[in-house]
């Protein structure tokens, strides 16, 4: 498999991520109702979600859920295991407002990280009902996503 040069634009391919949950009902309420991710296929042991165009699969595995270690990043204790999406700044602000209105407990409150630096970004961290950490972020200039 060849990798396109960073100078050439390439179509973004959806990723697939499978992760453990303690309750499929709670996963449906959180990912489906709160985050607005449409449900795809499912079984009594798993459910697919359209996670902003990506395939997210919640697998019933209560013994594998929960928060793990953290690393310090720009003054915050960032959960090592986490996933999320890079949104537009408008969508990030709308989601932050929606989550605050819903009473979401943030691990890391919505704020701007790396202010004035090449990696300046809006970020927020929170847990799903099963203890999986999520990060949503946004850049004023998305071309700075991988800038050094």
What does this molecule look like?
With 148 residues, this protein is an alpha+beta fold. It contains 2 helices and 10 strands. The chain folds into 2 domains: 13-63, 2,3-Dihydroxybiphenyl 1,2-Dioxygenase, domain 1 (Roll), CATH 3.10.180.10; 66-148, 2,3-Dihydroxybiphenyl 1,2-Dioxygenase, domain 1, CATH 3.10.180.10. Helices cover 16% and strands 39% of the residues. The strands form 3 sheets. A 4-stranded mixed β-sheet has the order 1-4-3-2, with helices on one face. A 4-stranded mixed β-sheet has the order 7-10-9-8. Strands 5-6 form a two-stranded antiparallel sheet. The longest helix has 13 residues, at 89-101. The mean pLDDT is 91. This is VOC domain-containing protein. Pfam families: Glyoxalase.
According to CATH, what is the topology of the largest domain?
2,3-Dihydroxybiphenyl 1,2-Dioxygenase, domain 1
End-to-end C-alpha gap: 25 Å
The proportion of residues forming helix, as a percent range, comes to: 10-25%
Strand order of the largest sheet: 1-4-3-2
Domain unit count: 2
Alpha-carbon Rg, integer: 16 Å
Q: What spatial form do the alpha-carbon principal axes imply?
A: globular
Pfam families: Glyoxalase
InterPro entries: Glyas_Bleomycin-R_OHBP_Dase, Glyas_Fos-R_dOase_dom, VOC_core
Domain VOC: 13-139
Protein name: VOC domain-containing protein
């Amino acid at each position: 498999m060849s990798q396109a040069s960073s100078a050439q634009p390439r179509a973004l391919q959806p990723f697939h991520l499978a992760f453990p949950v303690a309750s499929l009902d709670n996963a449906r309420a959180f990912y489906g109702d709160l985050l607005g991710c449409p449900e795809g296929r499912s079984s009594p042991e798993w459910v697919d979600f359209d996670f902003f165009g990506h395939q997210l699969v919640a697998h019933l595995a209560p013994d594998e859920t929960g928060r793990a270690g953290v690393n310090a990043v720009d003054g915050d204790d960032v959960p090592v295991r986490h996933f999320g999406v890079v949104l537009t700044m408008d969508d990030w602000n709308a989601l932050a407002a929606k989550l605050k209105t819903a009473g979401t407990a943030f691990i890391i409150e919505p704020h701007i990280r790396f202010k004035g630096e090449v990696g300046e970004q809006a970020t927020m961290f929170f847990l799903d009902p099963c203890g999986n950490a999520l990060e949503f972020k946004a850049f004023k200039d998305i071309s700075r996503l991988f800038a050094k």
